[in-house]
Amino acid sequence: MLVDDQQMVRAGFRMVIDSQPDLTVVGEAGDGEAAVLLLERTAADVVLMDVRMPRTDGIEATRRVTALPDPPRVVVLTTFDLDEYVVAAIGAGASGFLLKDAPPEEMLDAVRTVHAGDSVIAASSTRRLLQHVAPLLRGAAPATVAGGAELADLTPREREVLVQMALGATNTEIAGRLFVSEATVKTHVGRVLAKTGSRDRVQAVVLAYRTGLVSPADLLRDA
């Protein structure tokens, strides 16, 4: 589902998405209120959600959408000057974020990877955006000592995997860096999500920054 107050933006996204054999746009909405009402009667797997819209903005809409029974995954559409909105949207339950001016290939990859639940949309834009957002994530909730209650049950290897997730690495990249198979990485990721009570990888990444396990400086060193 496409949610954006600019009809031309929705038309462009629809044209790209509907050109794919495995993807279909099932609905459009021009604001968050209309999106919630439509999703109450229309099943969708992924929602591309703009943050700044009239009536109900993308943040409140995301909060309401993710509270629906069997909710879709929400990808927030943003720009570099809206970092605070990204943090708020992720806190509201968004599963990922994408720059509005990203190439069509990145947008399609975002839809597929978020639907599969395998990635935090690990494209080049994600790392750049994390560099902007990471300091805000650290301040979005009271920081705890790294390895506090939220991370206490993680094994050393699971912590390593969480760090790599927070740096925007894909499962394939994590496997290469830690010299393990991709299947092993997927197992570790599943355990990290379960042990930290994270709904998806994005929520686990937020936790990594909020607890201080990873810092914005780590992103710069990893670039």
TrEMBL record:
<keyword id="KW-0805">Transcription regulation</keyword>
<dbReference type="Pfam" id="PF00072">
    <property type="entry name" value="Response_reg"/>
</dbReference>
<keyword id="KW-0804">Transcription</keyword>
<feature type="domain" description="Response regulatory">
    <location>
        <begin position="1"/>
        <end position="115"/>
    </location>
</feature>
<dbReference type="GO" id="GO:0000160">
    <property type="term" value="P:phosphorelay signal transduction system"/>
</dbReference>
<dbReference type="InterPro" id="IPR011006">
    <property type="entry name" value="CheY-like_superfamily"/>
</dbReference>
<dbReference type="InterPro" id="IPR039420">
    <property type="entry name" value="WalR-like"/>
</dbReference>
<dbReference type="GO" id="GO:0006355">
    <property type="term" value="P:regulation of DNA-templated transcription"/>
</dbReference>
<dbReference type="InterPro" id="IPR001789">
    <property type="entry name" value="Sig_transdc_resp-reg_receiver"/>
</dbReference>
<dbReference type="Pfam" id="PF00196">
    <property type="entry name" value="GerE"/>
</dbReference>
<feature type="domain" description="HTH luxR-type">
    <location>
        <begin position="147"/>
        <end position="212"/>
    </location>
</feature>
<protein>
    <submittedName>
        <fullName>Two component transcriptional regulator, LuxR family</fullName>
    </submittedName>
</protein>
<dbReference type="InterPro" id="IPR058245">
    <property type="entry name" value="NreC/VraR/RcsB-like_REC"/>
</dbReference>
<feature type="modified residue" description="4-aspartylphosphate">
    <location>
        <position position="50"/>
    </location>
</feature>
<dbReference type="GO" id="GO:0003677">
    <property type="term" value="F:DNA binding"/>
</dbReference>
<dbReference type="InterPro" id="IPR000792">
    <property type="entry name" value="Tscrpt_reg_LuxR_C"/>
</dbReference>
<keyword id="KW-0238">DNA-binding</keyword>
<keyword id="KW-0597">Phosphoprotein</keyword>
<dbReference type="InterPro" id="IPR016032">
    <property type="entry name" value="Sig_transdc_resp-reg_C-effctor"/>
</dbReference>
